Amino acid sequence: MDAIALLIAATLNAGTVLAIAGLGLLINERAGIVNLGAEGMMLVAAIAGFATAVHTGSDWLAFAAGAGAGALMAAAFGVLVIWLNTNQYASGLALSLFGTGFSAFVGIGYTQAKLSERPRFEIPGLADVPFFGPAFFKQHPMVYFAIALTVALAWFLYRSRGGLVLRAIGESPESAHALGYPVRRLRLLAVVTGGALCGIAGAYVSVVYTPLWVEGMIAGKGWIALALTTFATWRPARVLLGAYLFGGVTMLQFHLQGQGVQVPSQVLTALPYVATIVVLVLISRNPTWIRVNMPASLGKSFYPGS
Fold it and tell me: Domain with 24 in it: what CATH number?
């Protein structure tokens, strides 16, 4: 039971990274913008957050730095695709490649750096409950932030006027523009917000999840978060559940190795990516289901007055 509790705790920890990034990308896509640069944004945010934590000793300033780095890169991407009408897919790939190279260059001096002793978090009283305490109530506050963010985003999208406008822009920007809404500015706001959340996820990786800096340490999490939005059919609650699913598969490899299962380590390491491919293949078997849930203007440029 103790091993299962630790596995659940590790799953929540690993899934938090994917959940926060996936929710950020969901906001982008609900506004009709596809950003393939999540991997690069998360890498730049990871080094920004880690460097801030090294020099200030504050995790919260590190998260702010990560959010700022992600938002800045997303803003540059937004100007390109929203105002200059560049191809969203090509621009996103360029952003990802830039972020990978830039983070590697900037992070050279931080490869051997170490953070101060990591604080331990627990909810008083609940943390001492057998099984449930170690599994659910000894988590970093960002784990609970991801859950609260999911609830808040679901409420915003389906219960608020702002969410209705955002979804309307994703479905038909021409109609929203005809009603007088500033489509381009709202799309840019959505892109920057999504970038900031990807930045927080990147900083979480380098400051909390694996408190160190290693080149390329995001290791495909940005791409998995991008796949999560399709897997979840653009719904926040499903993004959270999918994040925990992939987080559990990631942690399962370490659990199996700890139990002495004789499986090549390369096979276990590939499990999260195999799971991603399998899920996407299964979803793709029903294109009508995806088409019904997908924002109608996703990936399409908008030209006011045309």
Answer: 1.10.3470
